[in-house]
Design brief:
The complex is a heterotrimer. Chain A has helices at about 40-50, 95-105, 115-125, 140-155, 170-190, 200-205, and strands at about 5-15, 15-25, 30-35, 55-60, 65-70, 70-75, 80-85, 160-165, 190-195, 210. By secondary structure, chain A is an alpha/beta fold. Chain A has a 5-stranded antiparallel sheet, covered by helices on one side. Chain A has a 5-stranded parallel sheet with strand order 7-8-9-3-10, sandwiched between helices. In chain A, helix 4 packs parallel to helix 5 (about 170-190). The longest helix of chain A is centred in the last third of the chain and has 18 residues, at about 170-190. Chain A starts with a strand and ends with a strand. Chain B has helices at about 1-20, 35-50, 65-75, 90-95, 165-180, 180-190, 200-210, 220-230, 265-275, 275-285, 315-325, 325-335, and strands spanning about 25-30, 50-55, 80-85, 100, 125-135, 155-160, 195-200, 215-220, 235, 250-255. In chain B, helix 5 (about 165-180) packs across helix 6 and helix 5 (about 165-180) crosses helix 11 (about 315-325). Helices cover about 75% and strands about 0% of the residues of chain C. Chain C has a two-stranded antiparallel ribbon. The chains are: A alpha/beta, B alpha/beta, C mainly alpha.
C-alpha cells in the first residue's frame, strides 16, 4: 500500500490550471522532492494532499484510503494525520513552543494526556530546542522557528510529512544544518516525506526521488 | 470565553425573568405628558395604592416613534393598560384606531362635557391654555391670535413650528371653527406679515423674553415658567372679548387601553388621575395646568377655567382636521 | 461539518433577528386591508417634488459628511497609531468622546454654544456670533455635527486596522522610499477595507439621521418621511418610504465591492512580537500636536464645555443620579450584553463573508448593511409585529427586546470589523491548526480569535458605544419601566431643567469613557503579546 496515491488529479483556479492530470505514487517511508520553477503547481499539489484544496477531478488516496475525488474531500484535513511545514511556517504568535506542541497532541486521538509531557520533551530534544519551550515565536531566531515548525509537524508521529520550501529563507549554513536534521528525523521516524523546493541542490539532498514539475 | 458566555446567558435569563414581574399588582401606563410632571404623580399613585407602576414616556417634538405609534403597533396584543396623553388629539387618534375602550370614571364627575369623549373613550383633565406671551413694557399688546396678521407687528412675531405639538392642534382647531378658506387665508396673512418660526413653544417663549420678538402663541405653562424664572414677560388669554373666539384649551386626556392586561388596575389609575387632588397637584407644579373640575385650588397666576372664555371645539373633528392639513402645514412651514 | 453547522446557525440567527422583522414590515407595506397592493409604493413615487428634493438633501449631507469625516478620521488614526505624536493616547480618547453621545445631543451642545444667547455670545463679537448662529442651521450645521460625531468612528476603525499590519511590509518599503510614500503606497492600501467601511458607515449613518437635521431645520428625506408617518400613523408608508434609502445603500455596497475586488490582499503572517513601526515626525512633532489639540478643542472641548457649564448647578448631578441611576446601570448591562452578542454573531457572519464558505455570503453582507441603514422606527415596528404575540410574550415583555433591536440595527458593524480583522490573519495559521487535527471550533477559539483579538476587541468597543447611545429601535421596544439612559435623557428633555439634561449627558459620556479606559488598558497589556 502506498502512502500517497494521486490519479489524474487536476486543479484549476479562475480558469488557470495549476495542476494538470497528475498521476503519482509515493511509497511509505520514501523521500520525494518536488522541484520546479515558481508557479508550476508544487504548493498546490502539497495542499491537495493535505486536503486544504479539493481536486477538480481525479482521486487521492492516503495509506490506501480514498480521501478526495472529483470536487470533494471525503476525509477532512484534520482527519488525515499528516504533518505539514508551511512556507511561511504559520507559527501561532500567541503560543509558546510548548503550547504549539501541546496543541497538536491534544487533538491527536491516539495520544494519551499522561504521555504528552514526555512526548513534548522528546521532540524538543530531537529538534534541539529543549531550553526554548517557554519562548514564543517572536523571541526565536529564524532557525529556531523552523525547528518549531518541524517539531509541530512531527510530534503526532504522522506517516506523511509535507514540507513547502521550509528552508528557503535561511542562510546556506543553517539550511545545510537543518537538512541534516530533517534526514536524521526521517531516519528515526520513517515517515513519507514530500519536500517542495526550487533548489536542485536541496532536492538532490533530501529526495531519494526527485520529481521535476514544469 | 466560557465565562463571557456564562455572563451573557445569565444576563439574558435575568432579562426574561424581569418579564415575569409584570404579573401581580402592577399597572402599565404609556405617557405623553412630560416626564418631569407626570412621574411624580405616578409615584404618588404607587405610594397611595400599593401598586407598582411601569411607565413608558414619550420623547420630544420629533415624536417620530412616540408612544402612540407603539400603542397602535401593539394593538393585536396590548401591553399597556392606560394611556396618559398630553392633548386629546392623540387620544382621539387612538379611539379611531380601535386602541381604547369605554370607561366612565366616577372621578370625571364635574368635568365639562366638552372635555370628555361622548361615549367614554377618553376623558380630559388638567389643561393648558394657548396664550400670548408678551414682553413686559410692550406698548402695543395683542388681544387676539389675529394679531399675527396685524401690520403693527410685521416681522416682530414668532410661532412654534406648526408641524408639531399644541400649535398643530391649535391651527387645526381654527380650521374647524373658521372653515378651511378663512383659516388658509389667516395662515397666508401670517406669512405675509413675516412671522418667524421657532423650533418649539419653549423656544418661542425664550425669544420673546429675550426681546427678539413682540409676542408668541405658546402654552400657559411656558408663560408661567418664564415668569417664575423672573423673565420680563406676561401672559394674555386671547380672544376673550364679547365676540371673540375664545381661548383654545388643551387638556390632558386619559384612556383605558382595549384588552389591556390589567384592566382593573388601569381603571384605578384613571380614577386617580382624574381626581381633583391630582389636578391640584398639577396646577401647583411647574406644569401649571388648569383644573377642569370646578373649585380646585390653584395658584394666583393660573386662571380658573370658569373665568375663561373657552373656544368651543369638537376634539374629534380637530383630530381629523389635523391629519388632513398636514401637507398644507408642511408647505406653509417650508416657505 | 462543525463549521457548516455553526455558520448555518449564525445565518439562521441573523434571519430571525434581522430578516424576519424586515419581512414583517415589507409585508405590512404591500398588504392593505388584507389585499396585496402596491398602492403605497405608487403613492411614494408620485410624491410631491419636495420629497425628492429632500432625498437630494440627504444624499448631499451624507456625501459631504463622508467625504470630510473619512480623511479626517484616517489622518487622526494615522497620527495616533503610526507616529510619535506626544500625548497621542490622551488625544485619542479626547477625540473619541463625540462618538459616545447621540448626534442629537451634540447638536444641542452646539446650539447651546453658538445660538444667539449661547455661551459664545457672551464674549465674542456680535457679528461673529450672528454669523455662526446663522451657519448652525441648515446644511452647514448638520454637516459639522455629523462630521464631529462620526469622524471618531473612522479614527477607531483606522487604528484597529493599523494594529494588524505586518511591520515587515512597511520595512521593505522603507528601504527604498521615505515614510510619506510608504504610508501612501503600502500602509493605506493594506488598511483599505477598514477605511472604506468607515466611509460607508459615515454615509449610511448620516443618510438615516433624523434628530440632527430636524433640530437644525434641514429638510432631509428621513425627516420628511418619518414626519409624514407620525402624522398618519401609517407603518406601511414608513417602510415604503425607507426603500429609497435601501436602494442607495445597495448602490454604495456595489461600488464598494467593485472598488475592493482588485485590492484584496492575502498577507503573510506578521512577525510575532514586533511592535508597530512609528513614523518620527521630527520638526513637525510640535506643529502636529498643536494642530490636533486645536482640532480637539474646537470639535470636542467647546461643545462638551457647553454641556458641562450647563450642568453646573448645586443639585443637578444629585438629581441626575436620583433620576437615572437605574437607567444607567441598565444601560451598562444592556450595552455590554448587546456588544458581546453583536461580536459573537458578527464574528461568525464576518467569518462567513471573509472566507465565502457558503454561497449566500454576499446576501448576508447586504442584509446586514440594509438593516444598518433602516431607520430605527421601521426596525422597531418590525420587531413589535414579530414578537408581540401571546406565545412570545416572555420575550416581548423583557429587556431582551432591546438586545434584539441592537442586534438587528448594528450587526453590520461587528461583521465588517471581523472581515477587516480577518484580512490580516493569515489563513495558514488556521490551516496549520487544521492539519494538526483541531476541529473547526477549536481552531477559531485557540488560533483565529487570539490572533485577531485586538481587532475583535475594537469591534466589541464600537458595538458597546453604539448600543450605549442607541435611541432608534430600542425606544420603541424597551419594556415599561426599563428605559435606557439615552431614552431617559430624551424623555426628560421636554421641560427637564437644562442643568439636569446636561448632567445626564455628562454621566453618559463619563460612563462610556470609563469603558474606553478599561479597554485602553487591555490594549496596552495585549500589545506586547504580539
Amino acid at each position: 500500500m502506498n502512502a500517497i496515491e494521486l490519479r489524474a488529479v487536476t486543479k484549476a483556479y479562475d480558469g488557470r490550471t495549476a495542476v494538470a492530470d497528475i498521476t503519482l505514487s509515493i511509497e511509505r517511508g520514501e523521500r520525494v522532492a518536488l522541484a520546479g520553477p515558481s508557479g508550476c503547481g508544487k504548493t498546490t499539489l502539497l495542499r491537495l494532499v493535505a486536503g486544504l484544496e479539493v481536486p477538480d477531478s481525479g482521486t487521492i488516496r492516503i495509506n490506501g484510503t480514498l480521501v478526495a475525488e472529483h470536487g470533494r474531500n471525503l476525509v477532512e484535513p484534520e482527519q488525515r494525520h499528516i504533518g505539514m511545514v508551511f512556507q511561511d511556517l504559520a507559527l501561532w504568535p500567541h503560543m509558546t513552543v510548548h503550547g504549539h506542541l501541546d496543541f497538536v497532541l491534544r487533538y491527536d486521538k491516539r495520544s494519551q494526556p499522561a504521555d504528552r509531557p514526555s512526548r513534548i520533551r522528546e521532540i524538543l530534544e530531537m529538534v534541539r530546542l529543549s531550553d526554548r519551550g517557554r519562548a514564543k515565536p517572536g523571541e526565536l531566531s529564524g532557525g529556531e522557528q523552523q525547528r518549531v515548525a518541524l517539531a509541530r509537524a512531527l510530534i503526532a508521529k504522522p506517516t506523511i510529512v509535507l514540507m513547502d520550501e521550509p528552508l528557503s529563507s535561511l542562510d546556506p549554513e543553517l539550511s545545510l544544518h537543518l537538512r541534516g536534521e530533517i534526514l536524521r528525523l526521517h531516519a528515526e521516524l520513517s515517515f513519507a516525506l514530500v519536500y517542495v523546493t526550487h533548489s536542485r541542490e536541496e532536492a538532490a539532498d533530501l529526495g531519494s526521488r526527485v520529481i521535476h514539475m514544469l | 470565553m466560557g465565562l463571557l458566555l456564562l455572563v451573557v446567558i445569565v444576563a439574558i435569563a435575568g432579562m426574561v425573568w424581569t418579564a415575569s414581574r409584570r404579573n401581580g399588582n402592577v399597572v402599565v401606563v404609556y405617557v405623553s405628558e412630560d416626564q418631569v410632571f407626570s412621574e411624580p404623580i405616578l409615584k404618588d399613585f404607587e405610594r397611595d395604592s400599593g401598586m407598582r407602576v411601569l411607565a413608558v414616556y414619550d420623547t420630544e417634538e420629533t415624536k417620530s416613534a412616540g408612544v402612540v405609534n407603539r400603542l397602535i403597533a401593539e394593538k393585536a396584543n396590548p401591553q399597556a393598560d392606560v394611556y396618559w396623553a398630553n392633548e386629546p388629539i392623540r387620544a382621539e387618534v387612538l379611539r379611531q384606531q380601535g386602541v381604547s375602550s369605554v370607561y366612565r370614571s366616577p372621578s370625571a364627575e364635574g368635568i365639562p362635557d366638552q372635555f370628555r369623549e361622548p361615549h367614554g373613550y377618553w376623558t380630559g383633565f388638567s389643561a393648558r391654555a394657548r396664550m400670548l406671551i408678551v414682553a413686559n413694557g410692550s406698548v402695543d399688546k395683542p388681544g387676539s391670535v389675529l394679531a399675527y396678521t396685524d401690520p403693527r407687528f410685521r416681522g416682530k412675531t414668532v410661532i412654534a413650528n406648526p408641524l408639531f405639538g399644541t400649535t398643530t392642534a391649535h391651527i387645526a382647531a381654527l380650521f374647524t371653527v373658521w372653515g378651511d378658506e378663512r383659516a388658509k387665508a389667516f395662515l397666508d396673512a401670517m406669512r405675509r406679515n413675516d412671522v418667524h418660526l421657532a423650533s418649539s413653544n419653549g423656544d418661542s417663549a425664550d425669544q420673546v423674553a429675550a426681546g427678539n420678538f413682540e409676542f408668541a402663541l405658546v402654552d400657559s405653562d411656558d408663560v408661567y415658567n418664564r415668569r417664575k424664572q423672573g423673565r420680563p414677560v406676561e401672559g394674555i388669554y386671547p380672544d376673550q372679548d364679547g365676540g371673540g373666539l375664545g381661548c383654545f384649551i388643551v387638556p390632558n386626556a386619559v384612556l383605558l387601553v382595549k384588552d389591556s392586561p390589567h384592566p382593573q388596575a388601569g381603571k384605578k389609575l384613571i380614577d386617580y388621575l382624574l381626581s381633583p387632588a391630582t389636578e391640584k397637584k398639577l396646577a401647583n407644579s411647574d406644569a401649571a395646568q388648569i383644573p377642569l373640575h370646578p373649585g380646585v385650588e390653584t395658584p394666583v397666576d393660573i386662571r380658573r377655567l370658569e373665568t375663561l372664555k373657552v373656544m368651543s371645539v369638537d376634539y374629534a373633528q380637530v383630530a381629523a382636521k389635523m391629519q388632513a392639513i398636514q401637507p398644507l402645514l408642511k408647505d406653509w412651514a417650508g416657505r | 461539518m462543525q463549521r457548516r453547522l455553526t455558520l448555518l446557525l449564525a445565518v439562521l440567527a441573523l434571519a430571525v433577528v434581522g430578516l424576519l422583522p424586515l419581512v414583517a414590515m415589507v409585508v405590512t407595506s404591500v398588504f392593505v386591508s388584507g389585499k396585496l397592493t402596491l398602492a403605497i409604493y405608487t403613492k411614494l413615487l408620485s410624491n410631491p417634488l419636495q420629497y425628492w428634493i429632500a432625498l437630494g438633501h440627504s444624499l448631499t449631507l451624507a456625501t459631504l459628511s463622508a467625504v470630510c469625516a473619512t480623511p479626517l478620521g484616517v489622518a487622526l488614526g494615522l497620527l495616533f497609531g503610526k507616529t510619535d505624536l506626544p500625548f497621542r493616547r490622551t488625544l485619542t480618547v479626547l477625540l473619541g468622546i463625540p462618538l459616545l453621545l447621540p448626534p442629537y445631543v451634540l447638536a444641542i451642545c452646539w446650539f447651546n454654544l453658538l445660538a444667539s444667547g449661547g455661551l459664545l455670545a457672551q464674549g465674542a463679537p456680535v457679528q461673529l456670533t450672528g454669523l455662526l448662529s446663522h451657519a448652525l442651521y441648515g446644511l452647514p450645521g448638520c454637516w459639522w455635527v455629523m462630521v464631529s460625531a462620526l469622524a471618531p468612528a473612522v479614527m477607531i476603525l483606522t487604528l484597529v486596522s493599523l494594529h494588524a499590519i505586518d511591520p515587515r511590509l512597511e520595512e521593505a518599503g522603507r528601504l527604498v522610499a521615505r515614510w510619506p510614500v510608504v504610508l501612501y503606497r503600502i500602509t493605506l492600501p493594506l488598511v483599505l477595507p477598514g477605511i472604506l467601511f468607515g466611509g460607508l458607515l459615515v454615509f449610511l449613518l448620516t443618510l438615516g439621521e433624523v434628530g440632527v437635521p430636524m433640530f437644525l431645520r434641514y429638510p432631509v428625506y428621513a425627516v420628511e418621511t418619518l414626519t409624514q408617518f407620525s402624522a398618519f400613523y401609517d407603518f406601511g408608508a414608513a417602510t415604503a418610504a425607507a426603500m429609497p434609502l435601501l436602494l442607495v445603500t445597495l448602490l454604495m455596497l456595489t461600488l464598494e465591492r467593485r472598488f475592493l475586488r482588485a485590492k484584496v490582499y492575502n498577507l503573510r503572517p506578521s512577525t510575532p512580537g514586533r511592535r508597530m513601526l512609528r513614523v518620527p515626525l521630527g520638526r513637525w512633532r510640535i506643529p502636529a500636536f498643536l494642530s490636533v489639540s486645536l482640532l480637539g478643542a474646537v470639535m470636542v472641548v467647546l461643545p462638551i464645555a457647553a454641556l458641562v457649564v450647563a450642568s453646573l448647578s448645586p443639585f443637578a448631578y444629585w438629581e441626575a443620579w436620583r433620576q437615572a441611576a437605574s437607567s444607567l446601570g441598565r444601560s451598562l448591562v444592556l450595552a455590554a450584553t448587546g456588544a458581546t452578542l453583536l461580536m459573537l454573531l458578527g464574528f461568525f457572519c464576518g467569518y462567513l463573508i471573509r472566507t465565502r464558505t457558503m454561497r449566500l455570503w454576499r446576501a448576508l453582507d447586504t442584509l446586514t448593511l440594509l438593516l444598518f441603514t433602516l431607520p430605527g422606527t421601521v426596525i422597531g415596528m418590525g420587531l413589535i409585529a414579530l414578537w408581540n404575540r401571546p406565545g412570545t410574550a416572555f420575550v416581548y415583555a423583557s429587556a431582551a427586546m432591546v438586545i434584539l433591536a441592537y442586534l438587528a440595527q448594528y450587526i453590520a458593524l461587528t461583521s465588517r470589523i471581523t472581515v477587516a480583522t480577518l484580512f490580516n490573519v493569515p489563513q495558514s495559521l488556521e490551516e496549520a491548526a487544521q492539519i494538526a487535527g483541531a476541529p473547526w471550533l477549536a481552531r477559531i477559539r485557540h488560533i483565529v480569535v487570539p490572533v485577531g483579538l485586538p481587532g475583535l476587541v475594537g469591534g466589541w468597543l464600537i458595538g458597546f458605544i453604539f448600543c450605549m447611545r442607541d435611541l432608534g429601535a430600542s425606544m420603541l421596544v424597551y419594556p415599561p419601566g426599563q428605559e435606557t439612559l439615552s431614552v431617559r435623557i430624551l424623555t426628560l428633555m421636554a421641560n427637564g431643567t437644562p442643568s439636569l439634561i446636561s448632567a445626564l449627558c455628562v454621566m453618559l459620556v463619563a460612563v462610556a469613557l470609563s469603558a474606553l479606559g478599561l479597554l485602553g488598558l487591555f490594549f496596552r497589556t495585549a500589545a506586547p503579546r504580539r
